[in-house]
Amino acid sequence: MSESSELPSGDRRSRSVMPATESSLASDADKFDVARRIMSDLLPDLRQRAVVLGQLMKSVDFANTVAPNAWAVTLFPDGDFRLNVGQVETLIFHNCRFFRVLLAGAAGTPPLVGERFVACHYKSVPEPQCEFFGSIEEFESSKDQIQPNHMEFIRLAATTKSREPRAGTPHAHSHSAGLIAYATEFLRGIDGGAVDAWTADDDITRATDLPDDETERKAVIAARRGQGRFRDELLREWGGCAVTECSNGALLRASHIKPWRDSNNRERLSPDNGLLLSAHLDAAFDRGLISFADDGCLLIHSDRLSEDDARALGIHAGLRLRRVRPGHASNLAAHRKRHGFE
To answer: What is the pLDDT at residue 189?
Structure first.
């Protein structure tokens, strides 16, 4: 744990959950293949792996929405990982079994009670606060209580006292892009069989503006999963990856430029709001590690994706979209702004 991490006062357990320093992080621990090996070896049960990685990506997605530059995920060689938002460790997975989840009092939720909920105090986050510490199974049984309060803690950790998004995190240097890329692919069913995309299910459940027409409704829902009419139209338009020309359907993702959750139903189905990308480019684009200029040139967020990681994934500034439709321009500009490219 770096000296810039904020520790809760009076809480000794937080100091023992993770290694004392980040120097134990293997030089290749943020690579995709290493992340795949670590997670596969330590969590062979697909259901448990889906729970763990699903929660990680749910937390990351929310942090990314609140403050795109203020979070980082660190993967350690023993399989432990943590999500830092600002200076605070908001989510930790420890010893292949235990979650430590930071919580704040979300409006309209009952008090958190039980032996797994323990009070804590971080100076940069308003009270009340507590943490959950328990097994994967205990986490699952309590997740209805945990989720809204965890998201509230992330929101508070990601913003300043004046409620502005934080500009960064001191842990950006140890960000594990490979773990994010692997978790994204695993949850989309590439590794180990069909595993539900939890974040897609969450978006669909929360959506209040789905079409009344059943056919349109199914098309919009399928688009969130990168399937159906939306994918078919992108396949017809591009024929393969919009950058690499890879045509293997198993490796292609129908990606929204403007997130599905932030789009109206027309935008959710529009090819102007979509790119057909190889899986690794889709993961990087979705998390704001890369974007595209108006002329299609690939842009790399150097604070998020190191030169070594980019090289390992075959990502470089010489790549570009094969063409840019006029309708893409405003959505690409919004993506660049959202993820801090301009």
So the answer is: 61
User: Do the Cβ atoms of 248 and 241 come closer than 8 Å?
Assistant: no
What is the per-residue pLDDT across 1-54, written as a single tens digit (0 to 9) for each? Answer: 333 345 443 332 232 333 333 333 444 444 788 888 888 888 887 778 888 998
Q: Which of 35, 27, 61, 20 is nearest to 201 (CA)?
A: 61
* CA distance linking residue 34 with residue 247, whole number of Å: 26
Residue 170 DSSP code: T
Q: Where are the chain's structural domains? A: 13-184, 211-338
Alpha carbons within 13 A on the beta-carbon side of 217: 10
Cβ count near 247 (within 10 Å): 13
Residue type, 76: F
Q: Are residues 168 and 69 in contact, defined by beta-carbon separation less than 8 angstroms?
A: yes
227: which 2 tokens? 């399937």
How far apart are alpha carbons 133 and 119 in whole angstroms? 11
Cα–chain center distance at 320: 24
Contact 175, 182 (CB under 8 A): no
- Given CA atoms 94, 96, 98, 102 in this order, what sign does their dihedral have? positive
The secondary structure of residue 105, as a DSSP letter, is: -
Distances (CA, A) of 50 to 54, 140, 194: 5, 11, 10
CA gap 314, 319 in Å, rounded: 9
Does the global pTM surpass 0.85?
Answer: no
